[in-house]
Amino acid sequence: MNRSINYEQNRELEDNDIGNESSLYEITLYQRKYTIAIGKDRSVPERRNFYYVPVYLIYKGKVKSQIGAFEFESSEKNEKARIQPCLDKENDFDLNRLGGIVLYHFVDDMFMKQTESEMSPAELSELEYEYQNKKRKTEISIENGEKEDKDEEEDDFFNLTIPKNKISKQINSSDKLLKDGLFVLDKNKKLPETLLEETKEDSLVMKKEYNEKMSKKGTWVEKFMKNRQYDIVETESNGNCFFDAIRIAFSQIGYITTVDKLRALLSNEVTEELFDTYKTLFLNADGEKKEIENQMRIISKTNSELRKRMEKITETSERDKIRKNAKELIIKHDSLKEQLQNAKTMLNEFEFMRDVDSIEKLREVIKTTRY
Where along the chain do its domains lie? Predict the structure, then answer.
């Protein structure tokens, strides 16, 4: 970092960087994680062989502000040759080779908080996923002896507009829905009285007062708890019951929202880890179901063949053997039938993952009643 250099402290996207693309980077500032992009290199007029690249704070695919610069020295006059020592194997800027960022004077802790640009866990995961995916593709290309398209790579980092394929359409649509906030406050809502904490002694008293004959028309939860203080609030029964229950709960304290907003909020929190977990559970359940069904078909076919053999055999000892085998197969078939029901139950829990092969598709599904 060279303190003798005075930068313009410009907050806007500079003309030289408009319309160009840049890779995205994760950076930690004031103990929070942010996304940044880097502009083209510029020379420092008052310093020979001294250059810098402006740093832009990125949020939701847009430039929020220019916040500082990375400095480097080079005697090369050609731009490509000049920045080459600062690049990694993928021809992206390597921040470790550029050294520490020089923050503009206005970029303090308060400024960064006010930009509201801190990365969510979902965005961090997506950035890591894109990096790992790019890395895997590069490794596969090298293994297959494929040559990298240098022109394509140069275009990739000599630009500064965030590539459209790196901006989640689902996150964008969710952000539009949530732009005015998750809740609308109903100031005229009369808040319910705070319930007193129920003690063990209270529970025993209420159970003693409970009369089964008098409570035949009570709800299942009253009967199960032997307590008439419970009630059931009806929710939507169209696949939105979980989200509708949350909506109703908040409405009771004057915070009004919608099922669509709640789903959008959850959709934005999808991470690669969550996607992988859901996909693994679905594939395991689907595979187990198919395997059990296959075993049951084999048993049914074998049993059918034993019946035909039974019709042709007259010897008692042979018929007894066939009966014993058939009985064992029936027992196994019944056991598999029970396992199949369990597998179907598990599969039903994760059926929403069928044909979902990306984080973006999972975000889309979460906004529907499939999830």
Answer: 15-157, 184-256, 272-366
